[in-house]
Amino acid sequence: xxxxxxxxxxxxxxxxxxxxxxxxxxxxxxxxxxxxxxxxxxxxxxxxxxxxxxxxxxxxxxxxxxxxxxxxxxxxxxxxxxxxxxxxxxxxxxxxxxxxxxxxxxxxxxxxxxxxxxxxxxxxxxxxxxxxxxxxxxxxxxxxxxxxxxxxxxxxxxxxxxxxxxxxxxxxxxxxxxxxxxxxxxxxxxxxxxxxxxxxxxxxxxxxxxxxxxxxxxxxxxxxxxxxxxxxxxxxxxxxxxxxxxxxxxxxxxxxxxxxxxxxxxxxxxxxxxxxxxxxxxxxxxxxxxxxxxxxxxxxxxxxxxxxxxxxxxxxxxxxxxxxxxxxxxxxxxxxxxxxxxxxxxxxxxxxxxxxxxxxxxxxxxxxxxx
Length: 371
What we know:
36% of the residues lie in helices and 10% in strands. It is α/β, with parallel strands linked by helices. It has one domain (57-219, 242-369): Alpha/Beta hydrolase fold, catalytic domain (Rossmann fold, 3-Layer(aba) Sandwich). Strand 4 (181-186), helix 8 and strand 5 (207-213) form a beta-alpha-beta unit. The protein is globular.
């Protein structure tokens, strides 16, 4: 895409969208360039890569596996895209063994409300994608609720943080009641949520916990040679009515920017933070995501096609586990709403998302009740 005029890029986008290939359109934004994914630079803070137990991260993988496995087996006849637990999760060496405690699969006692914050560009493609919304109905059976926070799909974290703040403050809360909101950030939604928590102290007493799912906590190396003009191509997507926002979305995803933010901002104490990482086996990467996976693989093959596995962990959080799914499979239901794409390009998109979100909330609720 480098060297391509903007008019040419728009025509290319229009052509691929005319054929219905959303995945091919998005691939143009991230994978058409050839420079190193992480060029040499002396900018940014000093960094160190250490095991999670030396980074203030607690290891919750054993209990999350028990909960997720129990949910999957109990709901295997109810949810779509069922997978056995050992295929739904990736096990790394050293994962602790579970204690074998029973898993409560009954109604929620806290009636938690998950407010999810999507990734870059989602608001531009949502009208075309027409997500089925089955997770909300599934969770309602057990007393949980799920809503999507409308953030600006092409803006940086500052503007979106304000929108998250407004969404949280608009929710009713009974005086003295324990907070019920669980902020769930997906991809760039995670930096948006972290910025909101750090910038607006007034929401902290209303938030019970924050969960990062495939979050770009440390940014994505793919953003280093991407441009905002490329992201703006999503404004020309079929049925899209999104605007250019503040033009800061791509900049916000650059590793240098994200790691500098982490170095300069302390996360509010008193909240629970959780990290759920996408770490698919290579055969679980969809065909259309292989080019971006290969690009990141020059740094580390342990990536989900968009983010390296160690860049998805919030410092000081509880590490819930590693999902055997690529970056799109857990949140962009192409296999449900665009089956032709799923059969030809997004070939590994099927994933038991309803069971996953139930397991996330049950894990968080159990953790909160154990305080």
